[in-house]
Automatic annotation (TrEMBL):
Mg(2+) binds at residue 249. Keywords: Heme biosynthesis, Lyase, Magnesium, Metal-binding, Porphyrin biosynthesis. Its EC number is 4.2.1.24. InterPro entries: ALAD, ALAD_AS, Aldolase_TIM. 5-aminolevulinate 2 binds at residues 290, 329. Belongs to the ALAD family. It catalyses: 2 5-aminolevulinate = porphobilinogen + 2 H2O + H(+). Catalyzes an early step in the biosynthesis of tetrapyrroles. Binds two molecules of 5-aminolevulinate per subunit, each at a distinct site, and catalyzes their condensation to form porphobilinogen. It comes from Amycolatopsis pithecellobii. This is Delta-aminolevulinic acid dehydratase. The active site is at 212 (schiff-base intermediate with substrate), 264 (schiff-base intermediate with substrate). GO terms for molecular function: porphobilinogen synthase activity; zinc ion binding. NCBIfam families: PRK09283.1.
Amino acid sequence: HTWCGRAFSLRSTVVAVFPEFRPRRLRGTAAMRRLVSETTLRPRQLILPMFVAEGAAQPRPISSMPGVVQHTRESLRKAAVDAVRAGVGGLMIFGVPQTRDATGSGATDEHGILNVALRDLRAELGDDTVLMADTCLDEFTDHGHCGVLDADGRVDNDATLRVYAEMGVAQAEAGAHMLGPSGMMDGQVGAIREALDDAGHQDTAILAYSAKYASAFYGPFREAVDSQLKGDRKTYQQDPGNAREALREIELDVAEGADAVMIKPALAYLDILRAAAEVSPVPVAAYNISGEYAMVEAAAANGWLDRERTILEVLTSIRRAGADMILTYWAAEAAAWLD
Ligand code: PBG
């Protein structure tokens, strides 16, 4: 042991090395591991994204997301009550309309499926949970883009902001406590904040999808909402190779009035999440998205991964990277395990 038993300096702290220090001491029993565990994972930190389909007679399975369905209004209500009983911190609702048009008019219509479902849930759950709404047009447009198009077929940023503002007010009126603008238009948080305040909804919060990447992992979600998109969202979502602009987006959203910010996807972007958590003055959320869900479910179905252990490790890792809250399709199930 000539090389050990010395002390060396790491980040200006003097640390002992083997055999003085044996890291395994703190791993020897379950009680010891519990005592020194750094990361908590609690049901209240989990938010369940849910889909509700207009005119559905029964819940419809989503083949690339086994276990997740497009709900009917009635099944949504029941599943929401169950999730809240399991202790989840919130519900994020996505609407799947029966008809779509160029401007996504189902999004602003008080009788549109998302607004109707929000009303149902607020009536059922009151303030027992945080009811969140996806504030974006892609489910409602016949071209599948997150905004309205200009004469050349490009997504028109500022025209889209006017629709988001109207959509946000409709959602607040329908009972949403928190809005999740996910379209990555410049200025969307400020436009929605101003419209909410003008309409007397000062208390409706905004969870800004600040850093949302143009990701292949959204594939199963596109099936979940019957997306009409051809092409991609690269003119508004971020390039996976870029880190710096994520922090810039957060800064802008906070300046525009975001109450919390989100990083999405989660697993392939834990570095972005860590960087965001270090600088954000508001709570940070991460979205454990559809493709991340599908990967684990597919591997578990093949017997290649231990499903429960993998899910809990995924969620713990997202927390460890810095997320205060996690949107995950496993929210209700994981909450029940954690309870
Ligand atoms: C767009 C939106 C998307 C997701 C949430 N909101 C998809 C997209 O940008 O194409 C993806 C969520 C998931 O993959 O689980 N409004």
